[in-house]
Design goal:
- By secondary structure, this protein is an alpha+beta fold.
- Helix content is 39%, strand content 27%.
- The chain has a domain at 42-115.
- Strands 1-2-3 form a 3-stranded antiparallel beta sheet, with no helix packed on it. A two-stranded antiparallel sheet has the order 4-5.
């Protein structure tokens, strides 16, 4: 008797589900197609077109990727209002490739400007 396994079409940072196939055992398996230059593709999706300087408690920081922005937003030193939530969501979406890093950068700049954190 063959087991039916649920499967989902998933994408994760440049990996694409190319095919679902059955092995000789009858179980469903997933084979991933990996882009040849996955590191380049990931970095191009995450890197800001130009870095953003922000003030922290100890020094000025340079935020150059969506990942840097998410890490800074985790320790946000100001009120976490609407702009903060939008910036966090846009940076996470940029990491997942759902929006461009440029849009995430603009949201981050808007949140930092309203909080008075731009250097």
């Amino acid at each position: 008797m063959e087991r039916e396994w649920p499967y989902y079409a998933l994408g994760f940072h440049g990996l694409q589900l190319s095919e679902i196939y059955r092995e000789q055992s009858g179980m469903r398996c997933v084979r991933w197609q990996v882009h040849t230059s996955i590191e380049d593709r990931i970095m191009s999706q995450r890197r800001f077109p130009s870095p953003v300087r922000v003030k922290s408690a100890t020094a000025d920081l340079v935020i150059s990727t969506a990942w840097d922005a998410v890490e800074f937003l985790k320790h946000w030193p100001s009120k976490r209002g609407r702009e903060y939530r939008i910036a966090m969501q846009h940076c996470l979406d940029a990491l997942d490739g759902l929006i461009s890093a440029s849009k995430a950068r603009l949201s981050f700049i808007c949140a930092a400007r309203i909080a008075g954190l731009l250097a």
